[in-house]
Amino acid sequence: MIGWETRRVMVTGGGGFLGKAVVQRLRAAGAEQIFIPRSVDYDLRTLAGVREALREGKPDLIIHLAAVVGGIGANLENPGRFFYENAIMGIQLMEEARLAGVAKFVTIGTVCSYPKFTPVPFREEELWNGYPEETNAPYGLAKKMLLVQGQAYRQQYGMNVIHLIPVNLYGPGDNFDPASSHVIPALIKKCIDARDAGAAEIEVWGSGSASREFLFVEDAAEGIVLGAERYDEPEPVNLGVGDEITIRDLVELIARLTRFPGLLRWDTSRPDGQPRRALDTTRARDAFGFVASTSFEEGLRTTIDWYEANRPGAVTRAASSAG
Asked: Which residues pair with 237 in a beta bridge?
């Protein structure tokens, strides 16, 4: 068990969506020495940036969250960038951490690493039984290589590297930019924009038949901190809730919660992505006691409320309503 009070923790990506939640959770657990290498100061895609971050932070534990990510559209437009930048960041950081004597390295993988037709629920043993879904394979494989690296470093050097695989995340502070956002923030923004504009319908990609599992960001942060604190094994660990919802049901739920009364028009010429996605969460529960606690509708309401209060023009709209 880790005593957080004495640990020097580096959280890459600590200023991002998941990173902020992890840092908050670390502080709640008692961590006082947290170093967050900001990308404007440390370019972790470069060896010089990695080395400088390690010199400044002097960590004995690293939680590697930094990643170049996006939805289906962003993955289709940037396959080379998503592969290279995610791979090079992790590979160089882990090697330099080894050379610097960092005691523990927590790699955050991705559910996109699983094969396209993985039997549901996804069990960690299925990771190598096929090729990932094509639209996000470069990103998924880049992160998967960090699992290989961590296991190899554990075997050869005795380095304590663990690999956690969160399912799709959502929550307050998510990325709502339509060019790069994932499905939940993209749909929330689309429904609210259409509602406020009085639009008769919205367009949604795909057929709606694909399913996804979603983990509230604060639950994900709890799972990551528990794993960092209690887990020390080579096998990867899923972080999720163990339930799935079809995209069609998801869109209808978000439309209801955002009070968008219009029609949903499905553009079936657009890709669905992976057919189904839901995790077996047994290992996380048994290995370090993680069980997600936020219900999906509760998490969605919290996320929608946050976006309504923080989106561009929210203050102006609130003032107009009050007047």
From this structure: 164
